[in-house]
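Subject: for your reference before the review

Hello V.,

The reviewers asked for a structural picture of the protein, and I figured it would be easier to keep everything in one thread rather than splitting it across files. Below is the amino acid sequence we used in the manuscript, unchanged from the supplementary table.
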Amino acid sequence: MRNLIAFIRKYSFFFLFVGVEALAFYLILKNNHFQGSSFLNSTNKVAGGIYSKYSDLTEYVNLKEVNNDLSNENKLLRENQLGSFVKVFSENIIVKDTIYKRKYLYTKAKVINNSTNKQNNYLTLSIGFNNGVKNGMGVIGPSGIVGVVKDVSANYSSVVSVLHRESKISVKLKKSDYFGSMQWDGEDYRLTVLKDIPNHVLLTEGDTVVTSGYSSIFPEGLPTAIIKTFEVPEGENFYEIKMQLLNDFRQLTYVYVVKNNTSMEVKQLESGRENGDD
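And here is what came back from the structure prediction:
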């Protein structure tokens, strides 16, 4: 306390000077409109800059939460698309004024491991059979198909990527409905190959290729790739087609596992048909 009093006495004239300056500054701002407005505008500009930087910082910190909200919203949007429902034909009374029942459900998942530089690539997702994931379910990304679930544990699942030499996905040309098989040739992770398209089909670079809907794994009509180059080898009846994948497999963060509510029925029906042919 004694030292504080000594300090104040020592610098009393300085503190008096600062106080008088502050009072004079206050009186100038209060009694002069121009100076007061200029000061207020300057402080608002500084404060606005500080708030803007703070907002940018909080927005960056909250990116994980924002991404989570967006993935939830995308999940709901996909589930409510007309393509996720199948029309019901029956003589029953229609309940809730609809003639559709839900065919596809989507479960969001985070990609926790992913490879693109091997001949046979896989992804690991953050959900497993505790979340309803099963072997054989399709996986789609922001811009098309990603792969098919292979192995499932309680909390994780492994996916055979489209970038796998054994992966074969049924797709079709959007503008003509000619269908073929999409396979990866093990070269560029951005490109894949479309097979079994007859050479009489009219093709154009940039044509969109979508899922065919001929399997019970993926909904029909999901954009998957665009035609980059094509040619007909001499003596062949089918095109050699290179396509550019719409998904960037090196930037996959969130994906959706697709559940087809009718897949078991289709498999049982086809299994019975095959057994009957033996």
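For the response letter, the relevant points are probably these. The chain is about 30% helix and 30% strand. The radius of gyration is 32 Å.

Happy to draft the paragraph if you're swamped.

O.
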